[in-house]
């Protein structure tokens, strides 16, 4: 269906041509799925744009072959785009026109490529939205993008891509910003499209669990070159190239918890205006040796013997059954089975967790709903974003907060920082009440790190100006002392003095997030709320930032409220987990207790939706929830009853479940007997 051979791509810049892709080759059969993985800047999205013919005027493209079925993509991309080749980009809010109704945008390809009349195209658009699992598709079609949740917008984008029944789907990080349940629904949908329609797919993702779940083959890109290719299960169970080993070592795993420290890949991508004729990865590779400076060729390589893989053997025989594997490393066979090295100096023992830092009691916040589809899907005039939440956080502790989008996690974080006024409830910091409008003392001690550093850093301020602001605002330092403090903060987040004069656009995403963390730490806070602070980072940068947060927790005794939809990240860094649904905490306890039975049914559904390496064989055992958080629920009773697969009947719909102690510090709010909840299958057992 798709064949690419020897594709090279360069972008003209003031510093010279950037060699974004060099000699990339891959092939996808009808109904096949290829994963494309690598760090940000490796050239993944550039390859997608090249296939679509959407490169700008400054791009220079060459290839031996670029064929889609019988067509040469270099000449036919514009004609095939939207008709036979569908595309789903990472950001649905950017892919949808905010000024047009959703139904018209889904119908547009049908009118453009199939010649359908507007009425017929809109009727088919409603059918497509229904096929995507959206509730009340006619109302959704009549809504504008801003009236839909992130998951609903992404499903509308997929409906648009599928409108003309394409034979190939190009998926560029289609689930990065989605919570695990919506992500699972979209992956189920994509699997069904492959099975029922024979759609071929090229999936770009930094989430290796999703690639393992959906794809049959995988291509690993590094700095524009293919460094490894092969069957996905064999490649991920026994990687051959050192770079692939590094990606796996940096991956936080929900099924492994926080037992081991993540091992990020040191350094950064090379300067592609001066491509290295030898191995691109050599400056960052812990296995570099004489010969790596010579040109490398992508060549067939024998798979490692069973039992020699880095992930602990191959009991299913996947490596033995693997097809052709190719690797760009002359030392691949010599390094077979060698794990990615651990840190030379392991971190010191973690200091004990201190006394209670923050207490919240009965916090509540309601918002009036907007118009349009929001009022149709949730007809009540108000939504209880936070509904009587009580929790406590100790000094030096990490409390993970998980739940679907719309569960109230970010609202709770802002209430705790008094960035939003609470309708009810009390907050105490080390026993002292925090007023509704706290003074500078509380603001200094409680800070926040947002998800997107581009939105939270002023593009017109240098790093030095951003870090000086809180020092001067809170009277911590001035003059030469403030200058020294800026250097200390940069050293704290492992950035050198050279970064003082840089603007946000002159840094990578990981570097910008480190600056945001340094700014939050400038006031020497006791409490730090991390609201999706690592969700937009690729796995290596994410590992470095997580390790940094752990070091700062141990050195400074900071308490974290860590909000994330990535349960693997929360399982790695948190001491305790609180699970939120529709404004309330349905389960709370130590990490090891929450991630194993007994589960609240909602917790079980969240964990079941996590894409884990090696769990493909257990796909039939996955628990899927109907609807989403916005689905109307009973006014009283269990807040999860309307979607719960284990509800008992009227008692769940009429009576609020009492919190019950399932173990030391482990509380579950459910009517089901604890003995019955304990018999649930373990949701995080990987089949590896």
Brief rundown of the structure:
With 688 residues, this protein is α/β, with parallel strands linked by helices. It has 24 helices and 25 strands.
Structure commentary:
The strands form four sheets. This protein has an eight-stranded mixed beta sheet, with helices on both faces. An eight-stranded mixed beta sheet has the order 19-20-21-16-22-23-25-24, with helices on both faces. Strands 1, 2, 4, 5 and 6 form a five-stranded antiparallel beta sheet that branches. It starts with a strand and ends in an 11-residue tail after the last helix. It has 688 residues and is an alpha/beta fold. It contains 24 helices and 25 strands. The model is unreliable at 305-322 (pLDDT under 50). Among the domains are: 216-235 and 243-252 and 277-285 and 295-339, no CATH class; 359-578, Rossmann fold, CATH 3.40.50.300; 596-677, no CATH class. α8 links the parallel β8 (168-172) and β9 (200-204). The longest helix is centred in the first third of the chain and has 18 residues, at 180-197.
């Amino acid at each position: 269906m798709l064949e690419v051979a020897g594709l090279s791509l360069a972008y003209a810049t003031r510093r010279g041509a950037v060699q974004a892709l060099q000699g990339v080759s891959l092939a996808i059969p009808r109904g096949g799925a290829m994963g494309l993985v690598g760090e940000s800047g490796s050239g993944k999205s550039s390859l997608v744009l090249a296939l679509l013919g959407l490169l700008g005027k400054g791009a220079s493209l060459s290839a031996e072959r670029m064929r889609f079925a019988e067509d040469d993509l270099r000449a036919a991309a514009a004609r095939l785009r939207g008709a036979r080749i569908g595309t789903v980009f990472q950001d649905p809010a950017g892919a949808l026109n905010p000024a047009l109704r959703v139904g018209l945008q889904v119908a547009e390809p049908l009118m453009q490529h199939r010649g359908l009349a507007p009425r017929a195209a809109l009727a088919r658009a409603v059918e497509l939205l229904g096929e995507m699992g959206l509730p009340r598709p006619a109302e959704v079609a009549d809504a504008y993008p801003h009236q839909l949740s992130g998951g609903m917008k992404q499903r509308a984008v997929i409906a648009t891509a599928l409108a003309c029944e394409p034979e190939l789907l190009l998926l560029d990080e289609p689930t990065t910003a989605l919570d695990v349940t919506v992500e699972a629904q979209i992956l189920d949908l994509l699997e069904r499209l492959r099975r029922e329609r024979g759609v071929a797919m090229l999936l770009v993702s930094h989430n290796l669990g999703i690639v393992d779940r959906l794809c049959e083959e995988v291509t690993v890109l590094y700095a524009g070159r293919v460094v490894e290719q092969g069957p996905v299960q064999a490649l991920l169970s026994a990687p051959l190239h050192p770079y692939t080993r590094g990606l796996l070592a940096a991956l936080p795993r929900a099924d492994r918890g926080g037992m081991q420290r993540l091992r990020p890949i040191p350094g950064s991508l090379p300067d592609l205006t001066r491509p290295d004729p030898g191995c691109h990865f050599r400056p960052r590779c812990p296995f570099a040796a004489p010969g790596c400076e010579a040109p490398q060729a992508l060549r067939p390589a024998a798979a490692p013997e069973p039992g020699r893989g880095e992930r602990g053997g191959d009991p299913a025989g996947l490596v033995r059954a693997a097809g052709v594997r190719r690797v760009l490393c002359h030392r691949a066979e010599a390094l077979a089975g060698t794990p990615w090295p651990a840190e030379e100096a392991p971190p010191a023992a973690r200091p004990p967790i201190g006394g209670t830092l923050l207490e919240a009691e009965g916090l509540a916040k309601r918002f009036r709903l907007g118009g349009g589809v929001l009022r149709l899907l949730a007809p009540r005039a108000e939504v209880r974003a936070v509904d009587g939440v009580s929790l406590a956080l100790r000094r030096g502790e990490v409390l993970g907060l998980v739940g679907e989008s719309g569960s109230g996690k970010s609202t709770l974080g802002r209430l705790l920082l008094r960035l939003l006024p609470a309708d009810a409830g009390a907050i105490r910091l080390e026993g002292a009440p925090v007023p509704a409008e706290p003074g500078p003392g509380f603001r200094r001690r409680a800070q926040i790190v947002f998800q997107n550093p581009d939105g939270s850093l002023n593009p017109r301020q240098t790093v030095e100006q951003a870090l000086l602001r809180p020092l001067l605002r809170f009277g911590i330092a001035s003059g030469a002392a403030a200058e020294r403090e800026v250097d200390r903060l940069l050293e704290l987040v492992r950035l050198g003095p050279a970064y003082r004069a840089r603007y946000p656009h002159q840094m990578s995403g990981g570097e910008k997030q480190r600056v945001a963390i340094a700014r939050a730490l400038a006031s020497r806070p006791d409490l730090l709320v991390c609201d999706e602070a690592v969700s937009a980072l690729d796995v290596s940068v994410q590992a470095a930032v997580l390790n940094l947060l752990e070091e700062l927790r141990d050195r400074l005794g900071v308490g974290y409220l860590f909000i994330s939809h990535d349960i693997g990240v929360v399982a790695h860094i948190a001491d305790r987990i609180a699970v939120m649904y529709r404004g309330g905490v349905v389960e709370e306890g130590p990490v090891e207790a929450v991630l194993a039975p007994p589960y609240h049914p909602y917790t079980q559904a969240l964990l079941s939706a996590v894409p884990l390496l090696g769990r493909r064989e257990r796909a039939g055992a996955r628990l899927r929830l109907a609807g989403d958080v916005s689905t109307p629920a009973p006014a009283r009773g269990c807040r999860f009853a309307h979607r719960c697969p284990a509800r008992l009947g009227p008692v769940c719909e009429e009576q609020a479940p009492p919190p019950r102690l399932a173990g030391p510090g482990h509380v579950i709010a459910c009517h089901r007997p604890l003995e019955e909840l304990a018999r649930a299958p373990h949701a995080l057992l990987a089949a590896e």
